[in-house]
Fold this sequence. Notes:
The complex is a heterodimer. Chain A has helices spanning 6-27, 32-48, 59-77, 90-99, 101-106, 108-111, 114-126, 130-140, 146-153, 157-178. By secondary structure, chain A is mainly alpha-helical. Chain B has helices at residues 13-25, 33-52, 60-69, 75-82, 254-258, 270-281, 290-298, 310-317, and strands at residues 92-99, 103-106, 112-115, 121-123, 126-130, 136-139, 145-148, 153-158, 161-172, 183-186, 189-193, 197-203, 206-213, 215-220, 223-228, 231-235, 242-245, 284-287, 323-328, 331-336. Chain B contains eight helices and 20 strands.
Amino acid sequence: MLDGEESAFEAFFEATYPVLYRFALVRLGFDRDAAGDVAQAAICKAIGKLRTFRGEAALLTWLCTFCRHELYAFHRRNPGRLEVELTEDDPEIRAALESLRGSLAEDLDTRLDHQTAASIVQRVLDHLPPRYAAALEWKYIDELSVQDIAGRLGLGLKAAESLLTRARRAFRDAFHAAAPAWPVGTDGRTKL
Amino acid sequence: MTHTRDSEPPPEPRADRIGQLVKLAGRRPVPDPAQWAHAHEAARLEWTRIVERRPWRVTFWRLATAAIALAGLGTVAWLALRHPSAPIARPEIATFDAVTGPLLVIDSRGASRSVTAAGERIRAGDRLETAAETRAALRMPGGISVRLDRDTSAVVESENRLILQRGAAYVDAAPGSGGAALHIATSLGVVQHTGTQFEVRLDAAGLQVRVREGSVAVDASGQRWTSQAGELLVLTRGRPAERRSVATSGPEWSWVSDVTPPFRLEGATASAFLHWIAREQGWTLEIDDPSLRARIDRVGLHGSIEGFTADEALAAVLPTCGLASRRQGNRLIVSAAP
């Protein structure tokens, strides 16, 4: 991308702008306009400092620091605006995820703080490879068949099944990493 | 064998739990197409800027090839080529004329510094970020004055191109000022002019170009719009361009006065003072008595009007020259004191 490769810029933008948008959205009380502005400012700043990215942190984590700065600046400019305290960083996200623990086991539909849960699951999806996240959404939200998913991904049936298996595993691991105690099985690991 | 949904094996319980969670969360929200396009353009501008500004680097393989090719020319030449070239010094192209508070200057390599006073120089590629309480005035080559409103982010790309990423910029290019026309590039279009005063504002609502004097051209999406003094042109993605009438002085322009570069009164003529204040305020200067016109060219002024508003400056200066003024709408009418 720093060499001026157009396709690299497009891939970068496509993969990161919507993630930053969602990052901002949940922290701005779901104000879509404000989230768009904050995400745009964050991605521009990040691109401006791309040369300083050394890979010590994951790219998304690095990008989210810019988004946090922009959120802070936004709230300074708009002191009366609703500021939603939500961060997927360890202490908070763990607490939030752990609060879901018993709820999910009993009745997902009635006991969960839906919006909080949705935000967290969506953040986990955002941290998966884009094809994994898309495949999981197609499978469970759109209820597409594996064959249809294979078609969308340009894969054979077996390859799509394999990708879905890897996507579920990646989701489970990401969730486990974020909330190791949620919900715990006899083996001490998350039961997902 | 081809699987259909009916023929797929039932999901494992764990997979089903994942499915419940994903379904519960619902589809991840995405920016709407206008936001996407807006952000894409802004990001592209920033990307283009850093790519164009990247220092020239010699890769290892190029270096090795060069070393082999130049081996016959001696070790000294080879060693000289082995070191990457120094980054190209970016020229200083503008100066802060006035700042009302702290602002950040970030260079094209990401190093930032805080500026709190006039006089600091700006290099090509610097990005300026005004804070919520800060406005700034820049002096560009050829004497063009650029004012930045609060919460503005702009990159001074070159002496004739400024990229407005957010907020508002006001340009005052007096007729006859030297230098090339200044282009204001935004994610929604490029604004260019020759000798005029105008404001470019970029926000979530779109791009707004207000012309106070002269005319400007706006190039966007392969089309060109021109706007004259007293017009506001609004460009919003997915909608036709809108054109409205606006005042050329008054509250909409008052932020510009907050960061007016200081006028050096000491040694100036009354004529220069009156023309300056009229231009800054968007007023038309009228001197009803022809003999008075010749007189004010000869009247020299002393003192300072630093920190004065326009009205305060007029009230302080004109009586000392035997002059009086009154305002009628947009007109500043000057006459001999009674």
